[in-house]
Amino acid sequence: MADPVIGILGAGKLGSTLARIGVQAGLSIHIGSRHSVADLQWVIDTLAPGAVTMTAEAVVATSDIIILAIPLNRYRDLDPTAFAGKIVLDATNYWAEVDGTKNLISDFNTSSSEVIQAWLPEALVAKAFNHMGYHDLEIEVDRHPAVPRAMAYATDHESIKPQVEAVLARFGFTPFFIGPLRFGLLLEPGSPLFGAAIPESEFAAELAKIYTSPYGQKIIAARGDQIH
Amino acid sequence: MPAKLQFGLDTFGDLAFQEDGTAMSADATLRQVVHEAQLADELGLQMFALGEHHRPEFAISSPEIVLGAIAMVTKQIKLGTAVTVLSSDDPVRVFERFSTLHGLSHGREEIMLGRGSFTESFPLYGYDLQNYDELFTEKIALWQKLLAGGKLNWSGKFTQKLTNTTVYPQLPKGETIATSLAVGGSPESIIRAVYYDIPVVIAIIGGEPTRFRPYVDLYHKAAQQLKKPEHPLGMHAHGIILDDEAEARSVGWQYIRAEMDRIGIDRGWAPMTRDRFEFEIDKGAYYVGTPEQVAQKLAKNMKALDMSRFDLVYGTGGQLIHQREATIRNYATKVVPRVRELIGGEA
């Protein structure tokens, strides 16, 4: 299977970091943001040399797998028709500092990636790259060369799992499937898994006790039960 | 290489601990900070900068008042903030506080703008964090107009309308309030600092400092692209400098780690493992160890990142009085001279 072209939307802390890691892994990286190509190109050439800067529209059109590294509150800027048939890795989180102190987008009954999937009905959305701090994507990975960190993902589309896992592995992580997209709630800010940059076995152990955590208790209180 | 090196201290006014381990009050901590600034001044350090926080573990919410007190008992040290959250403040009042400090200190004041690690000032002062960028853009423009002095005409979306207004005390003719901008890992913040022609101080509080090299490159590149001048670069990092390495590490584990974990709860960081903590000392962002160890590490990182300014955050997490003061003494009398020697060039 030829390597997919990876598109990254967003060139801030996370987008530029993922672009750098992707290029270093030998992947074709296309990146774009709300800035013009002229304004972004020299930034990317400096922070992630080798990644190709283009407009956001061109990134979507030319990439097989698109990573969303934009503020969650900008998701309505994405054109649903352009995403038809594309695999989308949703790395966004509801983050009060960026998205406002009141979360009007997602809640304990609808995880933020389910909101994205609903907005992009014909895209094949997986939640991934959201639970690890952008700095730890490099720091924790590089200082444990022999023990890859687990990168959890969730998706409703069984068919894309091999491709998603291949990409996560190329970025240097052990893919860790946690279930359909609704399970993505377990990876969101507030969860003990949010921020986790740990190996697979430790991740599994944390996941196993999630409902004993205050966050897990809040999920049960809001949904009446664990996520099934 | 940087022409002139500057070494200073930062503190957020972490509540200190008495020798018997009991926590000092905020009041007593404030007086201790003034005392420590006096010590730093006597030992020849060049900058003493205070953070602004609104949380139980920190005593300083009004840094300029503390700096005003320090101004009266010090002679040469610059008196700074690290940082002033301009976006959740009124630039006119900020200007008045700093121009007052300018007078009291014979022009030793310096303001560092930024957002800092915490964001509690936004709801406290009635601002929406979601407007951070817009608030910052508008207020920094007003700040630069205020620095220019004279009669002001201004209207903005988040700020007051000013018509032919002079803000007092005006700065003496030809003088200004030295202004820098604190940044973390956001490329846009670096570019913004270049755009506004303001020197940058990078907070490097985790990971190998050399990982910030791309951001330093971005700073240089942005100056070229935007045709703006470059200013000396600075960084800020946490440290504990004691004669005994094991003791420094143990104090670090007790206090720095505890503070990082407290911050982490708000910021969504995982609790710090012992392994990560040791890594931060051995290879990462913490300057914890003996004076020679810290000097070697600091000289290496300053060279690798083209840094000419370093601000050591001391007293992180509180610490006992003698530990705080030992760090200041070791830094001023042993580390700084040694780093100057290791880096060479014009001191």
From TrEMBL, chain A:
Pyrroline-5-carboxylate reductase catalytic N-terminal domain span: 6-94
InterPro entries: NAD(P)-bd_dom_sf, P5C_Rdtase_cat_N, STEAP_metalloreductase
Molecular function terms, GO-annotated: oxidoreductase activity
Keywords for the protein's UniProt record, in alphabetical order: Oxidoreductase
Top-rank taxon: Bacteria
Keyword Translocase annotated: no
Name under which the protein is recorded: Dinucleotide-binding protein
Gene source species: Lacticaseibacillus nasuensis JCM 17158
TrEMBL record, chain B:
Record's keyword annotation contains Oxidoreductase: yes
Keywords tagged on the record: Monooxygenase, Oxidoreductase
GO MF, any single term: oxidoreductase activity, acting on paired donors, with incorporation or reduction of molecular oxygen
Superkingdom in the source lineage: Bacteria
One Pfam family named in its UniProt record: Bac_luciferase
InterPro entries from the UniProt entry: Bact_Lucif_Oxidored (IPR050766), Luciferase-like_dom (IPR011251), Luciferase-like_sf (IPR036661)
GO CC field: cytosol
Segments forming domain Luciferase-like: 16-301
Presence of keyword Glycoprotein: no
Protein name: Coenzyme F420-dependent N5,N10-methylene tetrahydromethanopterin reductase-like protein
